[in-house]
Amino acid sequence: MTKHLKIIEIEKVLNILEKDYPDAKAELNFTTPYELLIATILSAQCTDVRVNKTTEVLFKEHNTPEKMVKLNSNELGKIIKACGLYKTKSQNILNTSRILIEEFNSQVPEKMEELIELPGVGRKTANVVLSNAFGIPGIAVDTHVFRVSNRIGIANANDVEKTEKQLRRRIEKNRWSKSHHLLIFHGRRVCKARNPICEICNVKEYCYYYKKSNK
After folding, report:
1. Which residues are catalytic, by number?
2. pLDDT single digits (tens) 1-30
């Protein structure tokens, strides 16, 4: 049997999650598209709480491409070290900032094709920026979205790219961005990686993971 919900069931699941998390939104702090781009690059394998503490310091003096490139990779690395992978991230942030200055007049591009050409920017980061900074519908598939959507049965895929494609097909476009946040909130609060709290989950009657676990 194919392990996904019908479209009408997916809509019911999202409606329930909307009631559970009415304030679901990006938890990275930012005031400009550039700040969000940098924060999202930093968020790879790092919590939003840690990133926000780091950017609070970083963005005081380095919140534009021009200000960022005044740092060298060692200086930037020291500021962002707590976010992990700091050597790679500092190189990506500086290279991306230089490209924005040289090719985009210091502005963050609003096209997926251009964003994913930037160092350290994949589809997940690009979708986060497009949806939260520019209001362009998108579904960024991070670890939470991947896990929760496949557990419930909104998607049935074994990698991030296929999951995104399926979610884009099965969720109405006007719900893409909100759904992304709902799935993240649910993943962080209830549908956790190691010990999901199924007993308090309001969508368990639809969830394939729950049904399989309670046969």
Report:
1. 124, 142
2. 357 899 999 999 999 999 999 999 999 999
